[in-house]
## 1
Amino acid sequence: MRFDVISIFPEFFAALQLSLVGKAQEKGILDIGIHNLRDFTSDIHRTVDDTPCGGGAGMVMKADIWGKAIDSILAENSGLRPVLAIPTPGGKQLKQADCHRLAKSSQVIVACGRYEGIDARVAQYYRQNSQVEVFEYSLGDYVLNGGEVAAVALIEAVARLVPGMVGNPESLTEESYSAAGLLEYPVYTRPLEFRGLAVPEVLLSGNHQKVRQWRREQALRKTAQLRPDLIRALAREQLEKDDLRQLAAAGWFLAADSEKYPHLQQIEFRPARLEEAKKLADFAAQTFPDACPPGMRPDSIASFIAENLSESCFRAYLNDETRRVLVACTDAGEIAAYSLVIIPRAAGVANIEEGAPVDFVVDGIPREGPLLYLSKLYLGKPWRGSGLCQQFLKAVLADAAAQCREWPEPYIWLGTNQTNKRAQRAYKKVGFLLSGQRVFFVGDESNKDITMVRRLNMKN
Ligand code: 6GU
């Protein structure tokens, strides 16, 4: 493979004699030619730039000089279609995939301009002339004074992908932005203690399975923190059960409906807004029937929805200081789940619903504190089994606890249909205990609910 670099600072590229890229040239795997743009001028001042047409600050590099320089390199080209790479902050951001593609070509010509740029007709001309592929690229969203640093970056990133360059090809597949699509996990070596900092114990355990798991977790955590764009791009097939558990804790969920949601979705938990009353009512009308036991009459369900889950009901809930409505919301503003908690006005018995368990004992202590009511918690169908329910429940409980900080020992209770084992399991998992029964009316049909209670201030 061959690189030809054209620059007004040829000395800059002495660095390419070092390290792997330098060695590869010695071994003959890689050829790098450095060309001084000024060698293609014909005036005594060796002028390469001129003032911009249309006015403005700075200088623009002359198309005629660049044309001569590039043509002279192309004239020596042996056959295969070369790439003309032009570093510019206005280009497409260079990705590892671009580097893999460029590593397959036999020649890359890098044209280093200064930052005001090269006359646009240079790229235009070579793009129209199909013997070359023009690739304008940027390193990122910041401005360098010229393309030289970006040229070295490209050469190093591409050269190491050329067969025979990197000693251990396995290290190519494990690294960032490659197959896994995650940032790299942290690495350590001796000494085992550095200024009071120890190497994570699992790495010394000799348990390769555990080490692999830990590294995967670290990579996922770091990526979720720093690069949500990479998380969003992960393919379903890449994700293991453990990955999904961890991503759920970081707020990312995989819906069951892979057609509508091919990728992980970031879901935010927050109080619902007054203007969302209609959306909430639609969502509630959709999800309520699923929570009803089989055999319940449609008209009973319809009358419950009309009386409790209409838009005006939700508007009233949202205007009521004793009620907290939370939503789990996708990036696109879609509701994935909602909850309604009723908070007593004061640390007493006010607002205790019918059927509430009043006398119960938790952890050997009879209840004395105020009693909050988790009146509703519904999940959209695509999100069942995604881990969203557990995370949302935790968020709802934390929010409820935050509403009554000044009360010494608040409790929360709920009722759910006795046949709904799935819901009961979910509540148990976050610390709810069975406390009793109540009768719950849907329309004129009475249902047996079980009730559950939980100390609000317990750690999950
Ligand atoms: Cl490729 N060139 C210049 N001049 N500035 C940059 C860049 C390239 N990438 C980021 N900043």
Note: The longest helix spans residues 208-226.
## 2
Amino acid sequence: MILTDTHTHLYAEEFSSDRDLLISEAIEKGVQRFFLPNIDSSSVDGMNALTKKYPNNCFPMMGLHPCSVKENWKDELALVEKLSGEQKFAGVGEIGIDLYWDKTFVKEQEEVFRRQIKLANQHKLPIIIHSRESFEEIYNILLDSKKGSPCGIFHCFTGNADQAGRAIDLGFYLGIGGVVTFKNSGLDKTLAEIDLQHIVLETDAPYLAPVPFRGKRNQPAYIVKVAEKIALIKNITIEEVANITTENSRKIFAI
Ligand code: NI
């Protein structure tokens, strides 16, 4: 059984004391592939150091996170564009629009998102979308941005069945993590209506730990809890969940 974590911030300082231990424990449990989304200029070195250490397990991505779109966004975006020309990345992410934390730079967030979709098209890479309270805004931009294949992932998808259907119709996959284990999230009912062909797994570690670790630091091995929950919803084995979702991640990233 091979599980793939399509979205983890394993380079984050929350893991500085036990990162190697957590990675080896996860690999032992079958979690063998980690896709690392970038945040901004401050996360690049840590991400690259980690992928250099684990070239067969950790795959870096490049992008500017919407919550890091501030006064200096032009410099930050220029760095993303420069590095994308110099180094091979598995995808462009994480990118998108966040209307939950701060709406001061919403216009700039949209501009940066559009330009990073273009960047992904240039390099023929998938995009990893952060869409917190912004599904409709993102969807409208995707409709007229003509994202080429491979499309990418709606990271931490928590929308309804209608939104899931529209994202899938555009060619996107839905990233499902710890939220599916939360009581009253409703995501289990949405997932029951969606074919696993459109789903990938993610932790978003160190955030969003699944039950029974909710509220604690999330870590790579906990993705097993997400896979177990999906197996329960779909009434199949965890091995089947692992096989299908890892195969989906291979289609997206060609890795
Ligand atoms: Ni993230």
Note: Residues 51 and 58 are 5 Å apart (CA to CA).
## 3
Amino acid sequence: MSAPKTVLGIDHVVKRFGAATAVAGISLDIRENEFFALLGPSGCGKTTLLRMLAGFEMPTGGRILLDGVDIAPVPPNRRPVNLMFQSYALFPHMSVRANIAYGLEMERLKKPEIAARVDAILETTHLTALADRRPEQLSGGQRQRVALARALVKRPRVLLLDEPLGALDKKLREAMQMELKRLQHEVGITFVMVTHDQEEALVMADRMAVLKDGRLLQCDTPHAIYEHPADRFVADFIGVMNFAEGRVVDGGVEAAGGVLIRAGQPAGLAPGAAAVAAVRPERLHLFREGAENSVTGRVEAVAYHGLDLQLHVRTPLAARPFLVRLTADDADRRPVDVGDEIRLGFRAADTRLFAA
Ligand code: ATP
């Protein structure tokens, strides 16, 4: 198999606003046809990076390459890169069809070609039946699809999306996550999405970059980042993680009360160094043979979530109670109630170690 082709090369890009550094030297390769997410807490620089890709901001340093060519001299409207705004910015007095056709009319394409392309994209975005309505006659999700259709009809090389689902309520948001993914797959255009919502990035992205303070902490598939976060911040930011502080010893960490927590992959930390062991809620089980690690704790809260049971378990390992997700099977084997003392087991292979 040939190596995936890079569409956007982000090469040591820096952006300063006066004394403030919004992007502090980021390098990333975004590939052909992938759904790429830029993820990080507020102020991490993700929007600034997206705006530089669109051409609305110029990098202070570094280069942005599109298909290997530096696009610094290319103004936003000449870049084969489209930015879809969170506010959608639809023309209120125009029909859905006219909104979508507008960009092609500006390009002075011939009428039959415009009609054919608009019809095709209306079909792809499931908007054909709504083509003659105005934006005010649409729901939030439908408006969002119009904004997408308007961006996609121009067949950009890359579509940039700034918190595309931010304005939608939870249920619609979840439906649109799948919808956007389907669309991206169908049109075969590279999508770069900015989000602060880690769940959204996990669900939608083929690969994602986690940023903090203008720096890149990790870039990989959602699965790789979830299972093997690069550091404590990423481990905490992506999904839920239980932490136990301690000191590095042979084979793991000595945590509070002298408990040895074994970890599968010692992180190259010096013996005696301050470290933290980390384990996901779904990797904690009611103790059974084969688990190298165990701890006894008291159940403080139980919440039923349909597929699983979530427990808060107070252990000597950490100030915060551990969050435990038991499968329905596990919970059937041993009913658990608030106040119960239970023994939790977890495997060394499921335990990560980070510098504290
Ligand atoms: P959010 O999720 O809150 O939008 P973000 O990760 O997208 O955050 P950016 O908008 O890229 O963050 O901002 C990164 C940093 O750069 C912030 O500290 C912000 O205050 C600063 N910044 C962004 N734009 C400007 C500007 N035009 N002038 C000065 N500082 C700016």
Note: The radius of gyration is 24 Å.
## 4
Amino acid sequence: MEINKIAVIGAGAMGSGIAYWSSFNGFNVSVTEQNDELLKRGMQKIKDNVITGVNKGKITPKQAEEIMAKIKGTVNLAEAVKDADIVIEAVFENMDLKKEIFRKLDASAPKHAVLATNTSALGITEIASVTKRPEKVVGMHFFNPVPAMKLVEIVRGNKTSDETVKIVDDLAHALKKETVTCRDSPGFIVNRILGPILNEAVLLLQEGIASREDIDKAMTLGTNFPMGPLRLADFVGLDVALEVSRTLEKGFGEKFKPPSLLVEKVKRGELGIKTRKGFYEY
Ligand code: CAA
């Protein structure tokens, strides 16, 4: 299937990154948020990505303008998806919210459109169950920051068709990403492994075994992590890390239980870089 138009639902760190990267690679994009204020912030995040692209010498100022011109922002979800060939949902990690969105997408997107979710860990089969096209629902999991991270994880729900998997695999390659494919299971591949790593780093801090700096230094110098796990948790967002951990705990039990320090930080609104305070101050 030829993809001309991509609709992105949600313009947080992931949605804005996906919108930018899709336009960067030549696609027409619509992006939608719940209200004008969030849309304005999302469009600014897309511009920030464009500026980074120029500063890193990846695009010229003229190309930057063309990239922005291919991205249309709207607060009207039905309008955003009405002529989309694929929709990529990237809203907060909450099953009820995702189901509500997928009901709306199913009602408003063209019949041929694939409905993909960028969920970090939630069940694709359960999200697909609220639609009349579960064979066209699939996990398309990008990583943060989208322009720099080379992977897209493709997750098959119980009813996802081979054709749908091929469409998103082709799209990921058109977006210059590598892909891996897996069955629907909490956390898929990456977050099932990364979730416990982040949790153990938080537990080391919580138990007073080492300082935040030494935990991160140990993992960057001892295992060549590009950034330490506590800094990475701040980067991903502690609210997202907590939701991932809760999904893993629900699926696999006690060993994935989120550490109390992570729960407390989220309760206090210390969510990492986006709130300027997490395990570090920004
Ligand atoms: N436009 C175009 N290209 C861009 C760009 C942009 N806006 N931003 C970056 N790039 C390009 C760069 O030019 C560079 O290209 P080359 O390799 O050709 O030079 C490439 O992307 C890498 O970018 P940087 O040079 O900025 O990267 P860096 O070396 O400074 O590393 C980092 C920064 C990528 C963040 C690195 O520290 C890192 O990998 N950290 C770990 C990040 C991580 O693990 N993310 C996953 C989190 S988990 C997740 O996201 C999933 C979830 O569900 C929670």
Note: The pocket of acetoacetyl-coenzyme A is lined by residues 49, 52-53, 56, 58, 120, 143-145, 147-149, 191, 194, 226-227, 232, 236, 240 (CB under 6 Å).
